[in-house]
Amino acid sequence: QVAILIPFRNRYEHLPVLFRHLIPMLQRQHLQFAFYVVEQAGNQPFNRAMLFNVGFREAMKDLDWDCLIFHDVDHIPENDRNYYGCGQMPRHFAAKLDKYMYLLPYNEFFGGVSGLTVEQFQKINGFPNAFWGWGGEDDDLWNRVQYAGYSVTRPEGDTGKYKSIPHHHRGEVQFLGRQYALLRKSKERQALDGLNNLNYFPNVTYDALYKNITVNLTPELALVTEY
């Protein structure tokens, strides 16, 4: 039983494309699955990681899932053999992306589509909430996984190929200096910033294909004590 969490803001044209590819693939893999679209309202910079934490909390209200897939809306799997299940180690499904010439940009790359069991995700304290704007949170997730004693597995050969739907980063600001500063303190922050300091007020609606969780995120909802 697999929960697929999709962080979302203004990408209405991408959702049907993703579902059109993903649903037949998951059916062919004989998986029981549900989609959770976690939509950020308000005018704060996009916070992909915090949306994933919200999605996890909400999904766990429904079922004790075997596997949680953290899935960007613009990542389309090209190979049906890329099995959307979890194992003893966290999984990085999107190992070969077309925009990176189907090469891994760097060994610690953990972006796009990843999968963890409930136990794994709770052990690493989820994603960090402190990453506002574009980038850095998946590198922090990689660090969390390593600090918890896990290693990351990836599909072999061409199995992990994905197409990335082109888009403009509309309003997706990047705070590189701040992201690097946060990454340098990954270990100190792991126990303080994640599932355990998350607060939110969801508005839940139901579509034919997914549960939609809308949240207005602000830094005050995930305060981090000094470390």
Automatic annotation (TrEMBL):
Q: Where in the cell is it found?
A: Golgi apparatus, Golgi stack membrane
Establish whether keyword Disulfide bond is in the entry: yes
Quote the cellular component terms of the Gene Ontology held in the record.
Golgi cisterna membrane
Q: Which UniProt keywords apply?
A: Disulfide bond, Glycoprotein, Glycosyltransferase, Lipid metabolism, Manganese, Membrane, Metal-binding, Signal-anchor, Sphingolipid metabolism, Transferase, Transmembrane, Transmembrane helix
Q: What is its EC number?
A: 2.4.1.274
Q: In which pathway does it act?
A: Sphingolipid metabolism; Protein modification; protein glycosylation
Q: How does it sit in the membrane?
A: Single-pass type II membrane protein
Q: Which family does it belong to?
A: Belongs to the glycosyltransferase 7 family.
Q: What is the official name of this protein in its record?
A: glucosylceramide beta-1,4-galactosyltransferase
